[in-house]
Amino acid sequence: MAKISHISPLAPFEFPKLPVVGGVEFSTVAAGIKYQDREDVTLVRLTAGTTIAGVFTKSSTRSAPVLDCQAKISQNDETGAAILVNAGNANAFTGKKGLEATDAVTSAVAACLKLPQNRVFSSSTGVIGELLPHERITSKLNDLRELLSEASIRDAAEGIRTTDTFAKGSGKTLDIAGKTVSIAGIAKGSGMIAPDMATMLVYIFTDARVEQSVLQSMLSELTALTFNCITVDSDTSTSDTLLLAATGTSDVHISDGSGPFRDALHEVMLDLAHQVVRDGEGATKFLEIKVCGARSQKDAKTHAMAIANSPLVKTAAAGEDPNWGRVVMAIGKSGAEADRDLLSIRFGDILVAENGWVSADYQEDDGVNYMKKQNLKISVDLGIGEASATVWTCDLTHGYISINADYRS
Amino acid sequence: MAKISHISPLAPFEFPKLPVVGGVEFSTVAAGIKYQDREDVTLVRLTAGTTIAGVFTKSSTRSAPVLDCQAKISQNDETGAAILVNAGNANAFTGKKGLEATDAVTSAVAACLKLPQNRVFSSSTGVIGELLPHERITSKLNDLRELLSEASIRDAAEGIRTTDTFAKGSGKTLDIAGKTVSIAGIAKGSGMIAPDMATMLVYIFTDARVEQSVLQSMLSELTALTFNCITVDSDTSTSDTLLLAATGTSDVHISDGSGPFRDALHEVMLDLAHQVVRDGEGATKFLEIKVCGARSQKDAKTHAMAIANSPLVKTAAAGEDPNWGRVVMAIGKSGAEADRDLLSIRFGDILVAENGWVSADYQEDDGVNYMKKQNLKISVDLGIGEASATVWTCDLTHGYISINADYRS
User: Fold this and answer.
1) How confident is the model at residue A238 (pLDDT cuts 50, 70, 90)?
2) Residue B9 falls within a domain, yes or no?
3) Which of A331, A337, A401 is nearest residue B398 as measured by Cβ atoms?
4) B269 and B356: one domain?
5) Rounded to an integer, what distance in angstroms lies between the CA atom of residue B364 and that of residue B369?
6) A371 with A280: CB under 8 angstroms?
7) What is the pLDDT of residue B152?
8) Which residues of A touch B192 (CB under 8 A)?
9) Is the pLDDT assigned to residue B256 strictly greater than 80?
């Protein structure tokens, strides 16, 4: 693992400056779960009154910590809360012992921080099928508690990485009724990324005060537009977890799921989702796929995902080949409604195909030049309706094969 | 195209000796459709009384020749018939002009062979979105007619290739009521292979006498067990065509869709389907994926295809990594029913995982040694029902990326 020494060419220039979110403290330690010489266990403490919403993998073989989080997520409580994350071991497909390990970790965190156990969430990410050495985590809890600091969010972003080539963070502040509300989030993930969130862990914090039911519906709706619209390799992990915690320390009450707070949260989530794609294993191109003119939103997304997941489209992007025939192929195979003779395809602003054939104005040289860009847009207008969807992916390269043909042995 | 100079390591030792099927003649010529210095147009003439069944791509952007074949396939006729195939140009996504080109080809063949046009089928395979230079085909029809011979099936198998690294053929003879019945088939295809038959052309001939409706239902049922159970890259072509022609010259009448004739046809179709996988772009391993113990046959196939299409499972095979965790992941993401704690996984005869965790008897060395084989079997018992399904695929290697990242430019 983590033998990728270079940083993704699509990485942001630097880790962003994130606002401090009142009521959230972070700490990390090196526990030797699997990696040596790096922080691999991260603790987050959330102040009393914090509400928490969550979205999780839909995998039927989901991991023990995911099952545990799901059981706890809808329980409201006025006490504080905590999140503990380890990297290097997914505690997935570990049977009854996996549940026992999660229980051991969350009960020890509860005791250490004087919280009820049902307010301690955990995530594990890394190799599947190996028992989690939970004593290595629990023996470090006092150190973690001592190190807790509101300023340490970047350390947390580093601590949750596995094969990620860069730490991922995004934040925003906004003024509401003369007060400042902050949002800050971190994410990890690069392979096994697909709708329903793949090997991905995301933690977002805000000092707004939001009731759990409002927080949950906002999170679910925005996930459908962000993390569930990205794919790296169409594979879905057993561990995906997205937690959103609202501490309320700003004293700004968000009472419904629309307005500027939702917009800011949407921006943070979309930025983190894009960063996950930009760290896609072996990625050298960032692709935005937009399908409009569909009969339904579901059809639009089915077509967009068929294009985004097509190995032939993704290898064409890698080869800088304006191969719109493969886009036609992907639309054809998706199973959703399309009329071959009504659809049009654009690469960026270049009209490539329309009326069932190559556009009369299209010059192959224009397409070839366009494909040299690092950020590519492929747009399809189906011409049969009003619905649209946008998804994001990366290209499929030799780098992906290299990373995944010898990840574990 | 066709810049792959080596033959797939999974190719059969040699092209098989195929039986001559009475009433079927073949010829090939070099027409310079796209390739130079090779045969690229193939003609098949079928004797009067031949019945023909067909199965085609389900792509909504299917090619002009596919639309034309579909319109003609169910028309019974006592006249002879013909099939014309060109390689190098798919005549797909070519709009109205594409239909005109197909019409020009089939009407010229009809005139040349004195057949009604509704008995002339055609296929085009190669690049999408370029107009078919149909005059290059029609100007060679007299040559093709002169060259027709019952012995030339191997030339036909060569003539229909595009990126294939070897020509594909399979045949059988069987005795029925003291008479000999022959079946011989040829196929092309290596990339864009997925259920619903991908960039694949298959032509199978028999001298049995079979009514069109019986022939069609046998073909459809057996396709579900053979060509629709293979995948190379999950992509589906716009051109897939499978035609089965029964000339009746053996004077053996097959009146129902069961019995030894069906079994022999099944064997030929499965052999050809496996050969297509064995020529999968960049393939170095042949994988059989069997899922049993499912609640329904549909669930079993959904799980099997999720495993077979998973880039992470396919790269693990390429890397000879016994990474059963990725098999668990693929089952989890498939959407079909599974219980994490009841499923068991075998690599060959080696029990790798059971009861939701790695098997107590499993030794990693055994898995590592097993994965060195060229032909791999991954079996999953879901433990919740009686239904099963088997599918076939190949590994995902640097070769696939090399072939597809610069196919067209």
Assistant:
1) confident
2) no
3) A401
4) no
5) 9
6) no
7) 96
8) 312, 329
9) yes
The residue whose two tokens read 């380890």 is A86
**Chain-chain contact of A59 with B358 (C-beta, under 8 angstroms):** no
Residue-level pLDDT at A198: 44
B209 and B318 together in one domain: no
A128–B328 C-beta distance less than 8 A: yes
Residues A218 and A341 in one domain: no
Our measurement of the distance from residue B389's CA atom to the centroid of its chain's CA atoms, rounded to an integer in Å, reads: 18
Q: Are residues B307 and B269 in the same domain?
A: no
> Cβ–Cβ of A357/B94 closer than 8 Å?
yes
pTM of the model: 0.88
Residue B15 belongs to some domain of the structure: no
Shortest Cα distance, chain B CAs vs residue A141, angstroms: 28
Q: Which domain holds residue A295?
A: 286-404
pLDDT tier, A234 (very low <50, low <70, confident <90, very high otherwise): low
Give the CATH number, domain containing residue A360.
Answer: 3.10.20.340
Alpha helices for B231-362 (secondary structure H): 260-278, 297-309, 311-318, 324-333
* Per-residue model confidence as pLDDT tens digits over A300-344: 999 999 999 998 899 999 999 998 988 998 998 888 999 989 999
Inter-chain Cβ pairs, chain A and chain B, closer than 8 A: 220
- Confirm whether B199 is a catalytic residue: yes
Give the distance from residue A43's alpha carbon to the nearest chain B alpha carbon, in angstroms.
Answer: 27
- Which chain B residue shows the shortest CA-CA distance from A90? B325
ipTM of the complex: 0.84
> Does residue B204 share a domain with residue B291?
no
Reference A267, options A144, A135, A372, A174; nearest CA is A174
B324 and B207, same structural domain? no
Given the structure tokens 């930009």, which residue do they identify?
A278
Q: Is the dihedral of CA A345, A294, A313, B191 positive or negative?
A: negative
Catalytic residue selected from B125, B199, B247, B284: B199
User: End of a domain among A233, A248, A278?
Assistant: A278
Say how many domains are in chain A.
2
Q: How far is B93 from chain A (nearest CA, A)?
A: 5
